[in-house]
TrEMBL record:
<feature type="region of interest" description="Disordered">
    <location>
        <begin position="182"/>
        <end position="212"/>
    </location>
</feature>
<feature type="domain" description="Transposase InsH N-terminal">
    <location>
        <begin position="16"/>
        <end position="112"/>
    </location>
</feature>
<feature type="compositionally biased region" description="Basic and acidic residues">
    <location>
        <begin position="192"/>
        <end position="204"/>
    </location>
</feature>
<dbReference type="InterPro" id="IPR008490">
    <property type="entry name" value="Transposase_InsH_N"/>
</dbReference>
<dbReference type="Pfam" id="PF13751">
    <property type="entry name" value="DDE_Tnp_1_6"/>
</dbReference>
<feature type="domain" description="Transposase DDE">
    <location>
        <begin position="324"/>
        <end position="442"/>
    </location>
</feature>
<protein>
    <submittedName>
        <fullName>IS1182 family transposase</fullName>
    </submittedName>
</protein>
<dbReference type="InterPro" id="IPR025668">
    <property type="entry name" value="Tnp_DDE_dom"/>
</dbReference>
<dbReference type="InterPro" id="IPR047629">
    <property type="entry name" value="IS1182_transpos"/>
</dbReference>
<dbReference type="Pfam" id="PF05598">
    <property type="entry name" value="DUF772"/>
</dbReference>
Length: 453
């Protein structure tokens, strides 16, 4: 006999929302182990204390934002509907079964006006990291960094072409000083220091989201993207830094400044870092050496000119400051250019009779030039680090740390695409996504400790 449940749906029941949320629900663990009381202090100065209508509790507002990032709910309108019907969400926000859910426009207004131009989202992310540190879940000794592309909310076919000047390199002063010292040591006249490096470059600028950058890389999708530069601690894979740039900014550009921020903000005594091959630049290798950090960077395959002898077959003699070619001819030092490269040149008279000339150089004057950066020693140390036993062990952690962190952000938290437009809004999305990832890890780890203890 078939029975209908319509009559039961009309019955009144005396229930408690506390009893309706499963005891092992993730939001229960988050609420138990994450201290959200700091939020009121972080945003209090943004609210009027004695004027206007009573505002929605900031804790409820931010918890609602967290829910959107916890479960990858892209729309604030959809988030409002989900909270209305989901008992666990209501319980997490401290709402009863009949309490009114904050309107989605409230979230939008606060994000676009009250919190715009403030550091509140960065402060919240930092506070979660500090809580992880207090629970001894972040060591700060071994860090892994990388970047991933995030699809911008922009049509790749709608753009204009503009001439822009590339950013001045932040290590230029140090490089100029090093070049001057090197030329002086070699008996060369000093060069006039160049205060800035401005190179005109034609780029595609999106008419939909001008802050995004047009990305065109081998093996990567083409279009307008942002880059999420992220650092994780190797101890429990907690995210310790997030920074967003346009998709056409090189991975290595913001690295050293973000590394220094973590050391200053959280007091990290960084001993070792693991990086992808995109970070294998001379300034980064020199920066790591100056900071006394053991750097492990993936090998960047050298692509010599087809048909010519590769540079690695020329041996460098540090004591005599010369290069020796495969035919045992010496290439003495000639000069150091503005970019910090030393030039070593062969004797064209000897090269003219060399049987390897056609495979060595195609210059008309039969002179072979080999360059070596003044910070090349730092780069070679990093190469040796990668080949060491500890270096190989550290680099293997990339797959289970930073790569896993990016995968979770995209697959579970909706960070494959940008919800909004503009660098500030994408930065907010990146920070909040990383914050909820950290919250989950903290809660699960503390729950595990509690069950084992």
């Amino acid at each position: 006999m078939l029975r209908s449940n319509k009559e039961k749906q009309q019955n009144y029941e005396l229930v408690s929302i506390e009893d309706l949320v499963p005891a092992d629900h993730m939001l229960r663990k988050i609420d138990k182990y994450i201290d959200f009381t700091f939020i009121d202090e972080k945003v209090r100065h943004l609210y009027s204390q004695d004027n206007g209508r009573p505002a929605i509790d900031p804790l409820v507002l931010f918890k609602m934002i967290f829910l959107g990032y916890f479960y990858g709910i892209r729309s604030e309108r959809q988030l409002e509907r989900e909270v209305q019907t989901n008992l666990a969400y209501r319980w997490f926000l401290g709402l009863g079964l009949t309490d009114r859910v904050p309107d989605h426009t409230t979230i939008s207004w606060n994000r676009r006006t009250r919190f715009k131009g403030t550091s509140v989202f960065q402060d919240i992310f930092d506070e979660i990291v500090l809580q992880a540190i207090s629970h001894r879940m972040v060591g700060g000794r071994m860090l892994v960094s990388d970047s991933t592309h995030v699809k911008a909310n922009a049509n790749k076919h709608k753009y204009t072409k503009e001439q822009v000047q590339q950013n001045t390199r932040d290590y230029l002063d140090e490089l100029n000083s090093a070049v001057e010292s090197d030329r002086k040591a070699q008996g060369k006249k000093p060069l006039k220091p160049r205060e800035e490096v401005n190179e005109d470059k034609e780029v595609k600028v999106s008419t939909t989201d001008p802050d995004s950058g047009y990305m065109f890389r081998e093996g990567k999708p083409e279009g307008f993207f942002y880059l999420d530069h992220r650092t994780v601690d190797a101890k429990h894979n907690l995210i310790t830094d997030v920074f967003v740039t346009a998709g056409n900014v090189h991975d290595s550009v913001p690295y050293l400044s973000r590394l220094d921020r973590q050391r200053n903000r959280f007091g990290f005594a960084v001993e070792a870092v693991a990086l992808d091959s995109g970070y294998m630049t001379t300034p980064i290798c020199k920066g790591l050496e100056d900071r006394n950090i053991f750097g492990v960077i993936a090998h960047r395959r050298f692509q010599p000119t087809l048909g010519l002898i590769p540079k690695w077959k020329f041996t460098y003699d540090a004591e005599r400051n010369v290069y020796v070619c495969p035919q045992q001819q010496e290439l003495p030092y000639r000069t150091t250019d503005r970019e910090g490269y030393r030039h070593y040149a062969s004797n064209p008279k000897q090269c003219a009779s060399c049987p390897m000339l056609e495979k060595c150089t195609r210059s008309r004057n039969k002179r072979k030039i080999v360059t070596r950066h003044i910070w090349e020693d730092s780069k070679e140390k990093v190469r040796l680090n990668r080949l060491s036993k500890s270096g190989k062990k550290l680099y293997r952690k990339r797959k289970e740390t930073i790569e896993r962190s990016f995968a979770d952000a995209k697959q579970l938290h909706g960070f494959r695409y940008c919800r909004l437009r503009g660098l500030h809004n994408v930065m907010e999305q990146a920070l909040m996504t990383a914050a909820v990832q950290n919250m989950k890890k903290i809660a699960l780890q503390l729950e595990k400790r509690a069950s084992e203890g």
